[in-house]
Amino acid sequence: MxxxxxxxxxxxxLLQEYIKTKDEQALYQAEQFSKYSMQQNIxxxxxxxxxxxxxxxxYPDMPEYIQSSMSFLLETMISYGLAYQEYQALREKQLExxxxxxxxxxxxxxxxxxVKPDLAEVDVGALSVPAKQMNGDYHxxxxxxxxxxxxxxxxxxxxxxxxxxxxSMIKYSMDSFPERRTDPSVILESLNxxxxxxxxxxxxxxxxYGLYNSNDHTxxxxxxxxxxxxxxHKDRDEFEEIDVPGLVLGVSPEITYTQFEKKxxxxxxxxxxxDGVTECRQGERFIEQEEILHxxxxxxxxPAQGIVDHVYKHFExxxxxxxxxDFTLIILRRNV
Length: 336
Description:
Layout: H1 2-21, H2 24-39, H3 44-58, H4 64-111, E1 122-129, E2 137-143, E3 148-157, H5 160-176, H6 184-198, E4 204-213, E5 218-224, E6 229-233, E7 238-242, E8 260-263, E9 269-273, H7 275-278, E10 281-282, E11 285-286, H8 289-298, H9 304-318, E12 327-334
Antiparallel strand pairs: 1-12, 2-3, 3-4, 4-5, 5-8, 6-7, 6-9, 9-12, 10-11
Helix pairs in contact: 1-2, 1-3, 3-4, 4-5, 5-6
């Protein structure tokens, strides 16, 4: 209490001096008073109250309308103080949450990391960029060392932490499958049962799984409601859509998936992606499919990773460097 009284007396003296002299030194000392008040968690309305008391002591005959205006200011600052305290509390919680999400995003990046294979028979390019901190897309390579390369591309219908948790579950479910169970249809059917049992019914996961056999250069694949991919015929310089029927994962445990096979010729490319690529927007305009394929063809003389990187940079610039959705693109090209 003695400290507060001392501060009140000091404030009154500072105010009185400034009113008489307009001295800058008094303003500087008032600034120090403000800093001290913040350190002591003194609210804005308490400072206003000190100001009113000081005025009343300096001017005992202060007009009533001035006193009324001071009372009005005091009530205003009481409301401001309460709102500011609430704002500060929310800001602290927000910063805490942001820090936790940052840690979770780094953990997700580590948990879902996959090694892009370096093969003589097929050139592989891959890129996955989250629109926010947490990635709702997932891609994974499984190379058995015997000529087979498994490629998984998935997308959670939903974003944020729940989507990231789903992707972690998918990744570890795939890691637990026996190596002999490599047929894409079998992989999707097994994952479908896992998702149906463990994921909330409001969330669904789309997934494309393909198996490239470098011994006979065939590509076997199945899809669970995933975004269609594309196949590039080098001899005809044409793209063909890889549109495979199949229900999203998690709807029913009894779903079966159809499996398809395609012969891959030398120089041909397989393009797999998520809807973050096909649903790019320039302002309010959605990018046409033909524009995506045109950009891919424009850089087709580059290695597969160079194509992927340039396509991403093109559409990143087109969206003013602000992704609206997670962006995942994988390109495989037969070399020999």
